[in-house]
Amino acid sequence: MGQHGMGVIVHEGQGHLLNTAERKFHINNVLSHVEHFLGEELPSFKGETIKAEFVEDEYFNTWKYKIKKKLGRQTQPYLSMKEVNDLVLKEILFRYRNHNYSFNVATDLKSITFCIQL
């Protein structure tokens, strides 16, 4: 099994490497976008430093979206930022716990920044 402890402790000098991400992504809280990034794109980058910013889409809080959802009309499925947070943390726990990474939730809870050295 791959569960030898809780993860590898990263040396203090490696933390600065996360500030120099080679690839940067901006992902809205659309279910398909989040799942695609975490399940397909992120695992494909080996040996690179990735910075992903998950943000709450403006449309997510509009009356139009809320009314369409209440009426059962077809609309793009969105995740709350808590659900995005939970998915990212799950990926870290199951796949990336031994990597050099940082994870930050904005104080207004509207964005999550995830940097990882793969």
| Radius of gyration from the alpha-carbon trace, in angstroms | 16 Å
Spatially, the strands of the biggest sheet line up as 1-2-4-3
- Low-confidence stretches are none
SS class: alpha+beta
Distance between termini?
Answer: 21 Å
List the helices and strands in order. Answer: EHEHHEE
Share of β-strand residues: 15-25%
Total count of strands: 4
Question: How would you summarize this macromolecular structure in one to three sentences?
Answer:
The protein is an alpha+beta fold and 118 residues long.
List keywords for this structure.
118 residues, four-stranded mixed β-sheet, 4 strands, elongated
Write the layout of secondary structure elements.
Blueprint lengths: L22 E6 L2 H14 L4 E7 L7 H8 L10 H16 L3 E6 L5 E7 L1
Parallel strand pairs: 1-2
Antiparallel strand pairs: 2-4, 3-4
Tell me what you see in this structure.
The radius of gyration is 16 Å and the shape is elongated. α1 (31-44) links the parallel β1 (23-28) and β2 (49-55). The protein starts with 22 loop residues before the first strand and ends with a strand. The protein is an alpha+beta fold. It has helices at residues 31-44, 63-70, 81-96; strands at 23-28, 49-55, 100-105, 111-117. The mean pLDDT is 85. A 4-stranded mixed β-sheet has the order 1-2-4-3, with helices on one face.
